[in-house]
Structures are given as structure tokens and as C-alpha cells.
Amino acid sequence: MPDNKRQHYVPKFLLRQFSCDVNKKQINIINIGRRKIIQNASLGEQCYRDYFYGKTTEIEKSLASLEGVFSKVVKDILSTGAYDHRQEFHMTLMISLQKNRTLRAEEELNAMVDKLVKLAMHGKISEEILRGVRINFEKAITHQIGRALTLSPMLLDLKQFIIENRTSIPFVLSDNPVIVTNLFGRTRFRGRALDGMSKSGLQMLMPLSPKYAILLHDGNVYTTQADDNIIKVSREKIIDNINELQWVNAYKNVYFSPEFGNQKISQLLEIERKSGDLISFERLQSLDGGRSYRLNDKDEYAPPDEGVKSELVRVSSKMLSKDIRIDAVKVRSNPLFYDDNSMGSPKRDPIWCQIVEDFSDAMLSGSCKFNDIWSFFESHYLSSRIGPWHGRVFRRSGK
User: Fold this and answer.
1) For residue 254, what pLDDT band results from cuts at 50, 70 and 90?
2) 85: which residues sit within 8 A by CB, 6+ positions away?
3) What are the strands, taking DSSP E only, across the chain?
4) What is d(CA 176, CA 172) in angstroms, rounded to the nearest whole number?
């Protein structure tokens, strides 16, 4: 087999934590489509596709290099049960990349591209033809990874915690392992898209082993009871909730350690997973020159209503039906957020968003490299207006 042909979208160092043999070469699987339990499957055969990142293998080799760093960070956490704050940047990058490098992430992006292009083609190509084709982004996953890398600093303001599972129920891991929810947004801003990296109330969680998981969330709206950023969970209901989120967030498979018993497997199999589109597609029309917009129920093939002056289109990943709920995490009585009543709100720190977007544009245009990240931020004309959290992150990064 050619070097780097088999390209994994969930790294093997993470899958090995859920292996079922001492050599860490086998793993137990729940295949969702077939509702089938597969014992002692080959771990190396999981979560990969040949040349997933391209036949030049440049991206695969770069990711492999980063995975070496991420693996060491995770190994230190698992061996000590503690969290080194100096690794916040690496954990942020790991979560951002993992969220955007899976088969499901690729499918979601292609679903968005398909709907947007078909809407743009209305009146130019017949509806019959458009309905008969599927429009894909040729290099969807490389685009996803590039954006995940350049925009990953958007998550640096989130507080990071290790969840220590003190129950007898182990965490499970899926082939789409980063859970994204927004408990604050769901209760406070119904009807808005809340899955963006810059949104107030963002929660992100990924299991690292059957005993530990990493949690990132918005410290401006959540307060957390934790011992040096370690959240100790002793209630089985919380672990069940996190495992359920892994189940409904999965693409095709869920992986589990030998300690995850038959009763818990049956419990997962009974949980309903939503079918249909992976994304949310909404059209909003204006009759007053763009001063206000009203949601309609039109799909990408329908013409605008007569008299409509303009439309807005909103596409996003579908939010999970439930949120990450942990006893130690509460919504603040006086949360801090920025809201200008636009679809992009509420945001945690709009100044920081602008700086990161400028950095992303500079990287994509080739005018700076990722290693220039800290000097770019410190020299940006808006740097003095970043929220107070940035001093903590910069200091812990040695900057």
C-alpha cells in the first residue's frame, strides 16, 4: 500500500483509548445503519478513506505531525488526571480540526453547496435538471481543514475543562466525536442559528478516553464548579446524556470499551436519531427594502414571492436536539454577550471575531503563516479592544 494512502479522519491515538485488547489493535463497534454490534474489529480499519485529504498527501503528513503533538497532550492528561493550562492552544486546535475533518463534516459542507448553487441557478437551468443532480465541492474536506486551522483561534476565549468520569459507565466515542451545543442560546435566543464558532453560549465536548473528556465553553455565560479545571462527575445520568449526544452526533459508527455493558448498548440502540437533511436551510424574504426579513418555507427550487425585493439565505449545521448538561455548569444570572439583533448574534467578542477573520484572510491569501499568529494578533489595530480573557491565553501560551 502506498505511504499515507489510508488517511484517517479520527486519529488512531484517540481510537486506541477505546480499544478492547491489550495491544490496542482491536475495537468494539455499534454500526448504526445495520444496528449491529461488531466485537474485536480491526482498529486500523476504522475512520479512514483512501486519499481522503488528497493524493499529494501533504495535508495528511501535516495532520500526522500535529497529531503527534495532540497525542502527547492527551497522554499527559490521561496519565496524570490533571490539565496543563499551557496546552490550551493545542487543545483548541485539536478540537477545531477534529470538528471539521470527518466524513460527516464533508457531507454537511457539500449539502450546503448543493442547495446554495441550485438556488443561484434558479431561472437559468430547469428545475427538472437541478433535481436530478447532486452538486459537490470538489475539494470540500481540504477547504474544511483550511478554515478549521485559520479560524481555530476563534475558540481561544472559551474556557477549557477536563471531565473526569467517576461512574461505572464509560464514555463512548463516535466517528464524528466533537459535540457542539448551546444551552444558553437555545433558551435565550430561540429561532437563531447558534452553531457558529463565535456564538455566545457555545459548548464543545469530545471524549478522550472512557474516563476523560475535554469540554470548552463560554465562560461569559456559564459558571462552573471545578477543581483546577477538573469537573468530577459521579452521576450516571450525566454520562448517559453525553453518550446519547455521541450517538445522535455519529455518522455511521460508535466505538465502546469492554466495560460498556449490554444494557447500555441496548439503551443507545433505542435512542431515536433524526433522519433527513444534515443541514438547516432557510430563506428569509423582505418586502420593505431590506429593513426587516420574514422566514418562509421555500426550498432551493422555488421562485421568490411576487413583489419580494430581496432575500437572505441561512444555511448551517443542524443543532442537536439536546444540550450538554452537567451539574457543575450553570447559566449565569447575568450573562455577558453582544447582541445587535442580527442573524450573526449573539457573539462572545465581536472584536476578536474580526481579528481572527482578518488573520484567516491573511493566511489564505499567503501574506502570513500560521506561525505568525501571535505577532499578527498583537499588532492588529483592534488588539487593544479585545476582551480581558486574551491576557490569560497569551500568557499561558508563553507570549
Assistant:
1) very high
2) 229, 396
3) 6-8, 26-31, 36-42, 48-50, 159-165, 173-174, 179-181, 203-207, 212-217, 222-224, 230-233, 253-256, 279-286, 294-296, 310-317, 329-331
4) 12
Tell me how far apart the alpha carbons of residues 224 and 239 are, in angstroms, rounded to a whole number.
17
Q: Which of 98, 77, 130 is nearest to 303 (CA)?
A: 130
Q: Which residue has the cell 496524570?
A: 80
**How far apart, in Å, are the Cα atoms of 31 and each of 46, 256, 320?**
11, 11, 20
Q: Own/partner pairs for 285-288, CB < 8 Å, 24+ apart?
A: 285/310, 285/311, 286/310, 286/311, 286/312
Q: What is the pLDDT of residues 170-181, one digit of tens each?
A: 999 999 999 999
CA–CA separation, 34 and 254 (whole Å) = 12
Q: What's the CA gap between 245 and 178, in Å, rounded?
A: 10
Residue closest to 363 by CA, chosen among 354, 375, 351, 371: 371
Whether residue 346 is preceded by a cis peptide bond, meaning omega within 30 degrees of 0, is yes
**Residue 26 has what pLDDT?**
97
Q: Where do the domains of the chain lie?
A: 6-278+318-348, 354-399
Distance from C-alpha of 172 to C-alpha of 349, rounded to nearest angstrom: 33
Give the global pTM: 0.92
Residue carrying the nine cell digits 432575500? 311
- Name 284's bridge partners: 295, 312
At 392, the amino acid letter reads: R
**pLDDT tops 60 at residue 76:** yes
Residue 70 DSSP symbol:
H
Q: Concatenated DSSP letters for 86-122?
A: GGHHHHHHHHHHHHHSSHHHHHHHHHHHHHHHHHHTB
Q: Please, are residues 292 and 286 in contact by the beta-carbon 8 Å criterion?
A: yes
Residue that has been written with the C-alpha cell 435538471 in this structure: 129
